[in-house]
């Protein structure tokens, strides 16, 4: 009876000891596997070079040349030859007004001038001369008096004015450009419209933006800028600063203007853009920005040494969108880990992928 209880108890103890031994072996194998596991990272050699300090601002693109065109003659709109978005050349006819009044005025002025010429000839004959060429013998004052008495001077001025106004019934483009803000329609009085249209020369664009007053000493005419439209981040244009307004507004901002070529018509008048200005600072140790990690309230960089990730505290200086300068903790030539470094610890085994 006694042996009947001993045998099952012995078997139970042996089974428990076997399970505990297996558990210890599994934990040991896991630790060995964890020690052999290597983290794949990307690294880059720290270099001493000029650091590109970036100044980012927002602004608007404006046409470098833009004109609001009006009807030069007040009358009924006869014809509009363009529409919004049309590209035209210098001298192209944009619109015409009715020419009846201007034409009649020109004809009347011509008749008046012809009559004045006849009166002038009679006056010359009365003076004893045969032709106008003979009046060379007269003094300038006497000749001027003859022209005024017969109405020749005033008739000539009236004709020239009527001739000019007749040419103004057609509004022509003063330069190459694109039509905008056109509202005029035929058969309406020109007085109905505030203006005929706006002509925009978008071959060159001016970008207007503001910077903090602390940056005014770092900007000057001729400095290069990069301009990226918010509507299309694929394109970046290069321009140059043309103006730095030497006045600070009530918000502590300084107005700056830059000009860029726009032959591909990427920028549109009034478009919102991002402006990037770079200036270089000599003799800085430069590493990727993603290599710097916050740990325990300090900045840390992992340096690759003999297959291990070595933890180093660093002091950083300038930074831009992709890189940072290091004042202490890194030397030129050190291989710093910048990718897949968030989960690293000191002395972790790593393999450089790139």
Automatic annotation (TrEMBL):
<comment type="similarity">
    <text>Belongs to the membrane fusion protein (MFP) (TC 8.A.1) family.</text>
</comment>
<dbReference type="Pfam" id="PF25944">
    <property type="entry name" value="Beta-barrel_RND"/>
</dbReference>
<dbReference type="InterPro" id="IPR006143">
    <property type="entry name" value="RND_pump_MFP"/>
</dbReference>
<feature type="domain" description="Multidrug resistance protein MdtA-like C-terminal permuted SH3">
    <location>
        <begin position="285"/>
        <end position="339"/>
    </location>
</feature>
<feature type="domain" description="Multidrug resistance protein MdtA-like beta-barrel">
    <location>
        <begin position="206"/>
        <end position="278"/>
    </location>
</feature>
<protein>
    <submittedName>
        <fullName>Efflux RND transporter periplasmic adaptor subunit</fullName>
    </submittedName>
</protein>
<dbReference type="GO" id="GO:0015562">
    <property type="term" value="F:efflux transmembrane transporter activity"/>
</dbReference>
<dbReference type="Pfam" id="PF25967">
    <property type="entry name" value="RND-MFP_C"/>
</dbReference>
<dbReference type="GO" id="GO:1990281">
    <property type="term" value="C:efflux pump complex"/>
</dbReference>
<dbReference type="InterPro" id="IPR058626">
    <property type="entry name" value="MdtA-like_b-barrel"/>
</dbReference>
<dbReference type="InterPro" id="IPR058627">
    <property type="entry name" value="MdtA-like_C"/>
</dbReference>
């Amino acid at each position: 009876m006694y042996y009947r209880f001993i045998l099952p108890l012995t078997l139970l103890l042996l089974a428990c000891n076997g399970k505990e031994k297996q558990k210890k072996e599994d934990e040991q194998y896991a630790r060995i596997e964890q020690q052999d596991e290597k983290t794949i990272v990307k690294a880059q050699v720290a270099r001493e070079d000029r650091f590109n300090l970036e100044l980012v601002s927002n602004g608007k693109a404006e046409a470098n040349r833009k004109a609001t065109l009006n009807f030069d003659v007040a009358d009924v709109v006869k014809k509009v030859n363009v529409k919004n978005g049309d590209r035209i050349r210098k001298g192209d006819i944009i619109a015409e007004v009715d020419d009846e009044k201007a034409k009649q005025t020109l004809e009347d002025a011509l008749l008046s001038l012809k009559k004045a010429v006849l009166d002038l000839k009679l006056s010359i004959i009365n003076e004893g001369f045969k032709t106008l060429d003979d009046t060379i013998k007269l003094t300038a004052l006497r000749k001027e008096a003859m022209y005024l008495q017969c109405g020749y001077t005033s008739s000539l001025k009236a004709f020239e004015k009527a001739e000019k106004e007749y040419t103004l019934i057609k509004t022509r483009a003063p330069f190459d450009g694109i039509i905008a803000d056109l509202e005029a329609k035929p058969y309406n009085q020109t007085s109905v419209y505030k203006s005929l249209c706006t002509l925009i020369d978008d071959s060159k664009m001016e970008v207007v933006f503001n910077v903090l007053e602390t940056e005014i000493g770092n900007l000057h005419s001729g400095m290069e800028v990069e301009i990226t439209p918010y509507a299309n981040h694929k394109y970046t244009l290069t321009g140059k600063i043309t103006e730095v307004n030497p006045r600070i507004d009530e918000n502590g901002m300084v107005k700056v203007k830059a000009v860029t070529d726009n032959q591909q018509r990427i920028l549109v008048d009034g478009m919102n853009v991002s402006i990037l200005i770079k200036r270089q600072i000599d003799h800085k140790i430069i590493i990727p920005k993603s290599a710097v990690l916050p740990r325990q309230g300090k900045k840390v960089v992992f340096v690759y040494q003999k297959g291990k990730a070595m933890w180093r505290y660093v002091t950083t200086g300038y930074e831009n969108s992709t890189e940072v300068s290091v004042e202490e903790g890194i030397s030129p030539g050190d291989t710093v880990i910048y990718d897949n470094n968030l989960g690293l610890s000191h002395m972790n085994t790593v393999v450089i992928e790139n």
